[in-house]
UniProtKB/TrEMBL annotation:
It is an enzyme of class 5 (isomerase). GO terms for molecular function: amino-acid racemase activity. The keyword Methyltransferase does not apply. It comes from Georgfuchsia toluolica. Belongs to the HyuE racemase family. This is Hydantoin racemase.
Length: 258
């Protein structure tokens, strides 16, 4: 089985992300079962403010859609989005037939199987606000307990690969709030944060379990590929109605996308 793991950052292009990329490549292939190959990819263009301003989604997320189409053409069995903003989440299921897993969507649904409630472990208010909207879109509000974010910069997040205390110490304030509110599980609200915690096998914060969304995404698509092989696939109705291939090709040609 071949899995395309798609980061929302410019992995392979911007050397600032090198440690993140290497951590993902090593860790995800350890998580995958024997016979599964996980290839990690980034996007060509990345803005550090794409989690703050919605207009940037139009420029950023199109790259992920194009990569999903490329992954299917190149024979990948599944496509994982490793960004907890779940960029282009619905569009991906319109344009490819292979199983798709979104980091936050997968993590939150799994949290509902493993815990009576969950909260988000987010590193900034703009990102947290966007993700609370996703909680509502996915219909999980009744299981969600809102807590504040902790504030660290993207550079500090990247520094966590060398010293996780840079991240974990500020995050403890969220854990204290979560304990007071009765939170039973955290969902990691950032792919980079998730990779830092995965590298150091950090599975809890202040006594509250923290789900490893990247590992969950790999195991989820492995299962979805298995299910597809026995005839169990996703619905092609409603928001998941696929775009006919001829229309997809003509639209891509219209907008100059190869």
């Amino acid at each position: 089985m071949k899995i395309w793991y798609q980061s929302g950052a410019s992995l392979g292009i911007d050397p600032a992300w090198d440690e993140y990329e290497q951590t993902l490549k090593t860790y995800l292939n350890q998580v995958a079962r024997p016979g599964t190959q996980v290839d990690v990819h980034g996007v060509e263009l990345f803005s550090h403010s794409d989690d703050k301003y919605r207009f940037e989604e139009f420029f950023h997320d199109g790259q992920i859609v194009q990569n999903a189409i490329r992954a299917e053409r190149e024979g990948y069995d599944a496509f994982c989005v490793g960004c907890a903003r779940d960029p282009a989440g619905i569009s991906l299921r319109e344009v490819v037939d292979i199983p798709v897993s979104n980091l936050l969507e997968t993590s939150m649904h799994m949290a509902c199987l493993l815990s009576p409630n969950f909260s988000l472990l987010a590193h900034g208010q703009p990102l947290l606000r966007r993700q609370i909207e996703l909680v509502k879109r996915y219909g999980l509000s009744e299981r969600f307990i809102e807590c504040n974010s902790f504030e660290v910069t993207l550079d500090e997040l990247q520094g966590g690969f060398s010293d996780p205390k840079v991240i974990m110490d500020p995050a403890m304030g969220v854990a204290e709030e979560a304990k007071r509110k009765g939170v039973c599980m955290f969902v990691n609200a950032c792919g980079c944060l998730n990779a830092v915690m995965g590298k150091y096998c950090l599975r809890e914060l202040g006594g509250i379990p923290v789900l490893d969304g990247a590992a969950l995404s790999i195991k989820m698509v492995e299962m979805l590929v298995d299910l597809k092989a026995i005839g169990v696939g996703r619905s092609k109705l409603g928001a998941f109605t696929p775009v006919p291939k001829d229309i997809l090709a003509s639209v891509m040609k219209l907008y100059g996308v190869v």
